[in-house]
Design a protein that fits this description.
Blueprint (H helix, E strand, L loop, with lengths): L8 H6 L2 E7 L6 H11 L9 H12 L4 H5 L2 H6 L4 H17 L2 E8 L11 H21 L5 E9 L5 H10 L5 E7 L11 H9 L3 E6 L5 H10 L4 E4 L7 E3 L5 E3 L1 H8 L4 E3 L1 H6 L11 H6 L4 E3 L11 H12 L3 H13 L5 H20 L1
Parallel strand pairs: 1-2, 2-3, 3-4, 4-5, 5-6, 6-9, 9-10
Antiparallel strand pairs: 7-8
Helix pairs in contact: 6-7, 8-9, 15-16
């Protein structure tokens, strides 16, 4: 082949990809939700055939409100309360991501939400990690190798963040790469969980913080200045600190400049950001502005079920909206890989041996 391969959904699926922000309980297969609900006796599903259930999740998530968006997780979490359910969901997540061309994935979930049938926090993590390892092995056998790292999330409205941070460190050598807080932002600032973040720093642990999605610049400021996060989950509201200067040239405020200059990665999730009302539409998404200003932007799925998406479709939307080419997609992928919560040699190996060669073929 001479010259670049045309950018289509099929060709983008061939590109090696890295995702940093993917929720385990937001990526179930609709058929799996139905089968697990039947097995565990959960009768609260809003639809009872695969297609109707898939449509319900997508439509319910299109609320324009983060709080309403989060309510869709009641159903997925309900069927992830058993060892078998956790292993299956984790195994299928690894397989589905690998089939989409993802070579590195960080998949997060909140162990505290999976205790309703008597599992301990440690057991929840053990079964989930087992599922990821099973999925990795099956994906490799199918010719789609993937490395999955797990992030443990604490719910910001609850009071277990220090406990979950300790859990993340306890499993650090067994497949858990870091810690996160998630949930409704308004009224639950990151500094409320300062003890957990101080613990992670004391243990030299990685952590990201959901900030600047539904709430504005104060959330981001706290996350970076007081909590010391390694990455920002979403962070789209960083644009609140970017104004038009003379000749409409963008001027960065103190927080925005700090985030850019410190190379704090932004885990941007285009489809989800529109669904939750963080941005009004795809063409108004600040992804391109932030990319042009040289922030470390990354492309992510957030919740594949709720957004009816995957990494290839997220990238295609950016291509169609902003006119990106293969070199742009490669840069965003390398941004993500540079920002991964794994040792530097492993990051470098994937960049040099998998990502760059994979894009070289597509670029031609």
């Amino acid at each position: 082949m001479t010259g670049p391969m045309p950018l289509t959904l099929a060709s983008i699926r061939q590109a090696p990809k890295a995702v940093l922000h993917d929720h385990l309980d937001g990526g179930l297969r609709p058929a799996t939700v139905l089968e697990l609900a039947a097995q565990c006796g959960y009768d609260g599903l809003p639809a009872h055939d695969e297609q109707a259930l898939a449509h319900w999740f997508r439509d319910a998530a299109d609320s324009g409100s983060l709080e309403l968006y989060l309510q869709t997780f009641d159903h997925t979490v309900a069927v992830m309360q058993t060892p078998e359910g956790l292993r299956r969901v984790a195994r299928e997540a690894a397989l589905d991501l690998a089939a989409d061309g993802v070579v590195y994935a960080e998949v997060r979930f909140a162990p505290e939400q999976h205790l309703e049938q008597g599992l301990t926090l440690d057991e929840v993590v053990e079964h989930t990690l087992q599922g990821f390892r099973e999925g990795e092995a099956l994906a490799a056998a199918a010719g789609h190798p993937i490395l999955v790292t797990c992030l443990l999330t604490a719910m910001r409205h609850a009071a277990r963040s220090r406990e979950i941070a300790e859990l993340a460190i306890r499993f650090r050598e067994r497949g858990v790469g870091g810690f996160d807080i998630a949930g409704a932002e308004a009224g639950f600032p990151p500094s409320r969980h300062l003890d957990a973040f101080e613990y992670m720093r004391a243990k030299c642990g990685y952590f990201t913080i959901h900030a600047g999605e539904a709430f504005g610049l104060p959330s981001i400021h706290e996350a970076v200045a007081f909590c010391g996060c390694d990455r920002l989950g979403h962070g789209v509201r960083i644009t609140d600190d970017i104004t038009d200067g003379e000749g409409f040239a963008p001027v960065l405020g103190t927080v925005a400049a700090y985030v850019r200059d410190k190379r704090i990665p932004l885990e941007l999730c285009p489809s989800s950001n529109v669904q939750t009302g963080a941005v009004p539409s795809m063409d108004k998404h600040p992804f391109d502005l932030l990319a042009r200003l040289r922030f470390r932007v990354t492309v992510n799925t957030d919740n594949r079920l709720m957004s009816d998406t995957d990494m290839s479709r997220e990238m295609l939307k950016l291509v169609e909206t902003f006119g990106y080419g293969w070199t742009d997609l490669e840069r965003f992928t390398i941004n993500a890989m540079k920002s991964a919560f794994i040792p530097f040699p492993d990051r470098l190996r994937l960049i040099d041996e998998v990502i760059k060669p994979g894009y070289a073929v597509l670029i031609g």
